[in-house]
Specification:
This protein is α/β, with parallel strands linked by helices. Helices cover about 40% and strands about 15% of the residues. The chain has four domains: about 190 residues, P-loop containing nucleotide triphosphate hydrolases (Rossmann fold, 3-Layer(aba) Sandwich); about 100 residues, no CATH class; about 220 residues, von Willebrand factor, type A domain (Rossmann fold); about 30 residues, no CATH class. The protein is built from 20 helices and 21 strands. Pfam families: AAA_5.
């Protein structure tokens, strides 16, 4: 049958180009997105300035972005190629490189320089479909500018030897993941050059079933449906708990295929799906608990039993409230699912209780565990008090500036800087000693993940690079280039923890859990060198002080931070959440770090006098989240109270963390922060 989507039917492709045109497999099923893109491009192909040549496919891993791009190659009859972006990409990766070549057939051994075009230039010049994978990871703004220039409708690329003009058949398809931990937003200039965009999610259950049947040859629709429902549920749970991995279509296909080969459904679920999402024991426990709540295991066992296959694993409810997948032979005395086990290479670390550990002394104690103090002289004390007063004044000015022109502009507000007492210091040490083994273990695992963020220097004497030095041509070692050298490692993350200090936090141990969480977040960020803000807030403390902010930890003046003041966190009155979020989000938006994470720890929906409640308050919070998300701030809501559904509705499912077990709150928050590095 003739292909109705061919864009240039009269074009003659070379043998190489014909080999690059993708051939649709028998299992390929045309999606709605594929039809939409084909119709849009075909309709506008001869419309000059309205021609559609730049496409954006944004969605989770495994949602079919690359498969769709290849299908467009078959639909349009154009060769397909791709380039995968990486963090240290430079202009030579966009434009190509000039490299020294030593001609072996020449007696004088003279060096010649030859230009090697990049894959981008080849596709651009010859009129191919180019898939640009993950441009969001590129750090160098100059590289993005070069890419932007290449995507202009009538653009051109200035090469060292010539100018290349955009071929009329060239189509760029940008594919990028959406909302992953640590993932930068797509450059605004790049996004503006896109003429058609698709939001790539997991398809509807029936479409998943149809595709799996075509891919695997399985004819059991009910089995495929139950498996698809499990994939969707696990994917949503992973997003809700900020777990990095994704349950996508690839996992679905291979899981079905494994079961068709006679493997146990539940065991294959772990190896084909869950372990692809995460291998962290705490996160696996969360996924298992979600499966138990949704009856996933029972549904799987019921559907596979119709084929004579029964699962050998069961879900056991542990004493700590977590569900664990166990085989019948598993030792009954094995530790709880959320216990932090010591890895083989964690020398000197321990998961024993703090009373028996000699490694849990706080940073302000001596070798014998006795606290060390430095007594300030009177003039030092006076100078310190002046600094504290000036900083407190500056924080109040910043907070008022943040809410200017908002609905909270006329609300009476004071930013306090609580100070600790001897009792607070003792309480802090008790909490920290219990948490430090876990924090040290997580820090040890996290430190290797810290990445270079910016490049500020050039390293010379290289055989390739971004800058050519003509004065070095006479050098016989071919080292005529320089390339950017990254500076010392520094975290790419800034964190703000907002703690709701409303009166209801005093119930059910929520306040104690919030204190432990604050200690864990501070100690972890401090040990990893992550800039951190820890603020609390309440409303209606007095008729004049309608909003109270408590600055416990602030990265602007680290020497003025009193970590023991975190024990001064207390439940007071109402909560004006939107105002608190706006103030902290503004501080984050002004930070220089790449990833900016704001975690709100709350037990109830917004409510403050006289009328900050209901739909009005929710809309205000949603507006703050929307506005500052566009400025690069990532929001997460850790809900620990009775209004979880309302909080989830305000923040959205993808930003919501349901904390059922308060004992797990400190560890969960630290794990989430670590995943954004």
């Amino acid at each position: 049958m003739e292909n109705k989507w061919l864009l240039s039917p009269g074009r003659q492709l070379t043998e190489e180009e014909q080999a690059l045109v993708w051939k649709k497999t028998s299992s390929h099923i045309e999606s709605n997105a594929e039809r939409r893109i084909c119709e849009s491009i075909k309709h506008n192909w001869e419309m000059g300035e309205m021609k559609i040549t730049n496409i954006l496919l944004e969605g989770d891993a495994g949602s079919g972005k690359t498969q769709l791009t290849k299908a467009l190659s078959a639909d349009f009859g154009l060769p397909y190629t791709k380039v995968t972006c990486f963090a240290d990409m430079d202009k030579s990766d966009i434009l190509g490189s000039i490299l020294p070549v030593l001609k072996s057939d020449r007696e004088d051994n003279n060096i010649e320089y030859q230009y090697y075009p990049s894959e981008i230039v080849r596709a651009y010049e010859n009129g191919w479909i180019l898939e640009i994978q993950e441009p969001t990871v590129i750090r160098d703004a100059a590289v993005l500018m070069a890419l932007n220039s290449a995507l202009e409708p009538d653009g051109s690329i200035n090469l060292p030897s010539r100018i290349v003009h955009r071929h009329p058949d060239f189509i760029a398809v940008i594919t990028t993941n959406r909302g992953y931990n640590g993932c930068r937003p797509l450059n605004e200039a790049l996004r503006d050059r896109v003429q058609h965009a698709e939001k790539m999610d997991l398809p509807p259950i029936e479409v998943m079933v149809e595709r799996a049947a075509a891919k695997t040859g399985c004819c059991d629709v009910e089995l495929l449906r139950v498996f698809a429902q499990a994939i969707v549920m696990l994917d949503r749970t992973a997003r809700a708990n900020a777990i990095k991995g994704v349950a996508g279509m690839r996992s679905y296909f291979y899981w079905v295929d494994a079961v068709l080969q006679g493997n146990d459904a539940v065991k294959s679920l772990y190896h084909k799906v869950i372990y692809k999402i995460t291998t962290d024991s705490d996160e696996i426990a969360l996924l298992e608990q979600a499966m138990s709540n949704h009856g996933t295991i029972e549904a799987l066992e019921a559907v596979v039993s119709q084929h004579g296959r029964t699962g050998s694993e069961i879900l056991e409810l542990r004493a700590d409230g977590n569900f664990e997948a166990l085989s019948p032979a598993l030792d009954k005395d094995s530790p709880p699912a959320v216990a932090l086990r010591r890895s083989a290479d964690s020398e000197g670390e321990s998961n024993s209780s703090p009373e028996n550990s000699a490694q849990t002394q706080s940073s302000d104690t001596g070798d014998d565990g006795v606290p060390m103090y430095h007594e300030l002289q009177p003039e030092e004390q006076e100078g310190l008090e002046r600094e504290k007063s000036a900083f407190r004044k500056r924080l109040n000015q910043q907070a008022r500036a943040a809410v200017k022109s908002s609905a909270h502009e006329k609300i009476g507000m004071i930013v306090h800087r609580p100070e600790s007492t001897a009792a607070h210091r003792q309480e802090y040490r008790q909490i920290a000693s219990a948490l430090m083994p876990v924090i040290r273990e997580l820090t040890r695992k996290t430190e290797p993940l810290l990445e270079h963020e910016v490049s500020v220097e050039l390293s010379g004497n290289r055989v390739f690079g971004t800058k050519f030095h003509a004065e070095k041509v006479a050098s016989p070692d071919f080292r005529h280039f320089s390339k950017k050298r990254p500076p010392e490692e520094e975290p790419s993350l800034a964190v703000a923890l907002r703690i709701d200090q409303s009166a209801s936090m005093n119930a059910f141990g929520r306040l104690a859990a919030a204190k432990r969480a604050a200690v864990a977040v501070y100690e972890f960020c401090e040990s990893c060198g992550i800039p951190v803000l820890i603020y609390g807030d309440t409303a209606d403390r007095s008729p004049k002080e309608k909003m109270s902010m408590y600055s416990y930890i602030d990265w602007e003046e680290p020497k003025l931070n009193d970590k023991y003041s975190l024990m001064a966190i207390q439940s007071i009155s109402n909560n004006r959440d939107g105002m608190a979020l706006r103030i902290l989000a503004e501080k984050l938006a002004n930070a220089t770090q790449t990833t900016k994470l704001l975690i709100s720890l709350s037990d109830g929906q917004p409510k403050a006098m006289p009328d900050y409640t209901g739909a009005h308050a929710k809309d205000d919070m949603k507006r703050v989240i929307h506005d500052y998300s566009r400025k690069g701030v990532l929001f997460l809501a850790a809900a620990i109270g009775q209004d979880k559904e309302t909080i989830c509705d305000i923040y959205g499912q993808e930003r919501f963390i349901d904390i059922t077990n308060l004992e797990q709150l400190p560890t969960r928050l630290v794990q989430i922060i670590a995943k954004y590095l």
